[in-house]
């Protein structure tokens, strides 16, 4: 699919390229947005905003980065701007409200037919946000270390460290009785 999109971009057929981009990246953009924002509605809004930005920026796409990496960077930046907006409006008076919203969103978006994946997604929620993003991009989206580093705008060593720590923590969370006995 990337080859077809690249061919349309090279020929200046940006509208046709965009028609192929949206179905190809819709789910991945949503999942990344959800992993950052933790709310289904906010992730849907961010995904939509991401594609508006992709549409506007597509004529300027120069191919220096892989298309998916470029779209992930736009998604990440869109979500970070949303988080910055929230900082001034989020109230911590009710400590359960954010947890309740997050739990409801996880139930709403979790796969119903794959208990192992559902369990993994629950375990991911216990990780810091940066580790969650790295794990999602590297393992669930099957990105390379370099692509993850570029998408998260982090040095390669930092990404490898995040993934190492995430794997270690996930192992502890997956087998708490073995870790305690050791």
Q: Quote the average pLDDT.
A: 79
Q: Cα distance, first to last residue?
A: 48 Å
Strand percentage lies at: under 5%
Give the helix level as a range of percent.
over 70%
What does this structure look like?
This protein has helices at 2-10, 14-37, 40-57, 67-87, 95-109, 115-124, 129-140, 145-152, 156-174, 176-181. It folds into 2 domains: 1-91, Rna Polymerase Sigma Factor, Chain: A (Orthogonal Bundle), CATH 1.10.1740; 113-182, Arc Repressor Mutant, subunit A (Orthogonal Bundle), CATH 1.10.10. The chain has 182 residues and is an all-alpha fold. Residues 88-112 and 178-182 have low confidence and may be disordered. Helix 3 packs across helix 4 and helix 7 crosses helix 9 (156-174).
Fold topology:
Blueprint: H1 2-10, H2 14-37, H3 40-57, H4 67-87, H5 95-109, H6 115-124, H7 129-140, H8 145-152, H9 156-174, H10 176-181
